[in-house]
């Protein structure tokens, strides 16, 4: 067993232990952690909560029993004083020697103390540890006023703490504005006036020369000769990495402090890693938790010999609530990295300032500043990080869409109060609205108290939309997050998967989620992974809905149905015979589907691979009837047989169906091609419908049948084959990238700002400059397609999963059928 | 004769427990379930790798009486481990079998232990 020693039990040191234990359930590593403080690791970011009544215990990241349960040897109140690299052990101040194979330096940082005369006086405090806070609180009981040196992030946190103690609060900043690293003058000015409203005095351009007082402080003298009388002083002006172990151990130190590390977080000794604020990469120390956590994750990956993402710096964007004021700063906040043009919105009466910096060509967002309202922070940060193109009117990003054309008669707002939302439980829109207005504000609670969505669940997306619309109408801020396990929207998760190269659900949950997942986020992420990497879905079978897990549609009674692909509905007599023979052999009920193919019902789970083996041998492939993916492209016979046809609808339908087969998407996709304007293939009720003209094809999009039928709308006319395919490529990829979970194209369009005009602009006029990228992504999906059933049939270990009992070869004895019209149907349960 | 649902209740441990050796650990997918046959019962057994925990419950979903829970997705609701029936996504606590979407029906859960690489499920000795 290998031995890992962690020096430092702060937030990052703790995160390292947690990640290592999650990724190493077999405990091949023995872990010992040293912390010099008396407590196990606590949430330093929210230290000021300690003053608003939270107990020290509430701030703990994990209790001592957690360390015990995970077999982590936690040694608090024990300081490491020496690292002996030659003999690979560390020595603590109590004289204990501990051997290590790998050493993790998570020593963190201490408060940076500016060289001011008199800092040793009584009444002067650092703002860093729980102990600092306790002594501040004690001293503060006798004080009336306090000053904080530091008007940055940490300083304002400290000011909040002092304010909560009920003291007259002063903030002293050397720079001409608050938060000089994150905010520009106007943003900072707004923050300042908001803090002043709360009674905080702000002193800018102040260089503290001396702390006055006889033994205990009485006031501060500044370089400009002015004087401020206070009873207490808190220094919170920055951090200094705790690297004092470096010298004796012969570890390299950065000029501005911190253990020098490479992109694998290794110091000059490859078995010694440094993470968090103690590490210096490229002469930079990262004083936020997010980069520290990322470092911890990557070191764990190295120990576990998992794939490692080199650490080459970190986006220092931040969003937080400072003394009740929301502040966000992201990307290139000042627009200094390249020539840029800012767009600024300032509303002093509402206390809102927003600035975004646009690249000179007007195509990209570089960064920006938000004060007073950070609701769009997440979306803007995504745009910067992923280099996403700007909308045609970038000011909409901070102002919201204002008026303009709005599609009528669509979306949840347009539903009448009497509309039935949940047909299983017969719940109307007004029933739901009433409960929402009584204060039920989350989907699960709404489901529980109205029973809406508890039947088939098909109305859940609509219920979610309705809830959001109602909450919005009440003036509440709603973020459309996936579920309790991911604080992200579907689109944000897709971007994370792409940008961070994440290939498994577990990796995504570890890095960006919490808890253990659920039936909402698992299939959703499975779909995103499939839409991005196109890997075989059954390799991660337990995150799939049962249909995708067994590659068949579950039916009443526990059996499954089998649907081979019949592109365009065209099939040879020989293949028809094969289907007939297979159905006969396995005793399956057969029916023609609405999508011009044949469904075979009543197959037991253990029969599925055998059935598919026979179908594949005869040249069939999966029809993906079980997936949120392309189903069929229906066709009429067109010019080949029909006296009215003007184009060869069948050939084109087959080409389109084979192009998009297997494509996973937010919901199922259906297409159709009609050979003339008589529209026998009903293309206008499909997600994409193609109707022949004398000159080529008219392309319609975003139609559906289903519970709320909607006609598709015309996207472009008289297209040649290639252009038509190009537009469908772009349209489908844009839908896959931006739709909410389980929204079909019609719903997606109904919610789209700018409606069909905007969609046309994106797909046909390429206003976002995304066209080529979308086509490339589609080309990847087409290239990497393979028939899932073929893979399973030829892979004995995947095949073995198709079994009802794990401890018996017996079939499910509860499956039973009764005859009906010469075929069979499942028996009803008694 | 018991009805299908009563059988599972009857097998719930009340006095003495019988440990039934079901299958090897490797027979159960990570973070997922599989179905075990015990006498005339079908038991859904879940290998909750992420939490390093094992759970067992009746395979029969009481909502629409379908033998399906072992094919359901597992997860958590707050701290509570749960399974969602693949049919209509009704969710049940894996700890106590409570219906997490309402109170009309619940399921029976059984104790599980792992020894020497094998999974054992605990039933009432008299069943």
Features:
heterodimer, A: about 850 residues, alpha/beta, FAD/NAD(P)-binding domain, Enolase-like, domain 1, 5 domains, about 30% helix, B: Rieske Iron-sulfur Protein, 4-stranded antiparallel sheet, 3-stranded antiparallel sheet, 1 helix
Q: Can you walk me through this structure?
A:
Chain A: Its cofactor is [2Fe-2S] cluster; [4Fe-4S] cluster; FAD; siroheme. The complex is a heterodimer of chains A (830) and B (127). Chain A has 830 residues and is α/β, with parallel strands linked by helices. Chain A folds into five domains: 2-110 and 241-303, 3-Layer(bba) Sandwich (FAD/NAD(P)-binding domain); 124-237, 3-Layer(bba) Sandwich (FAD/NAD(P)-binding domain); 318-399, Enolase-like, domain 1, CATH 3.30.390.30; 412-473, Arc Repressor Mutant, subunit A; 534-830, Sulfite Reductase Hemoprotein, domain 1. Chain A is built from 26 helices and 39 strands. In chain A, strands 3-2-1-7-19 form a five-stranded parallel β-sheet. Chain A has a five-stranded parallel β-sheet with strand order 9-16-10-11-12. In chain A, strands 22-23-26-25-24 form a five-stranded antiparallel β-sheet, sandwiched between helices. In chain A, α1 packs parallel to α8. Chain A is globular and about 105 Å long. Mean pLDDT of chain A is 89; it is low at 404-410. Chain B is mainly beta and 127 residues long. Chain B has one domain (4-124): Rieske [2Fe-2S] iron-sulphur domain (Rieske Iron-sulfur Protein, 3-layer Sandwich), CATH 2.102.10.10. Chain B has one helix and twelve strands; from the N terminus they run αββββββββββββ. Chain B has one helix at residues 4-10; strands spanning 17-24, 32-38, 41-48, 53-58, 60-61, 66-67, 73-77, 80-84, 91-93, 109-110, 112-115, 118-124. In chain B, the strands form four sheets. A four-stranded antiparallel β-sheet of chain B has the order 2-3-4-10, with no helix packed on it. Chain B has a three-stranded antiparallel β-sheet with strand order 1-12-11, with no helix packed on it. In chain B, strands 7-8-9 form a three-stranded antiparallel β-sheet, with no helix packed on it. In chain B, a hairpin with a 6-residue loop joins β8 and β9. Chain B starts with a helix and ends with a strand. The mean pLDDT of chain B is 91.
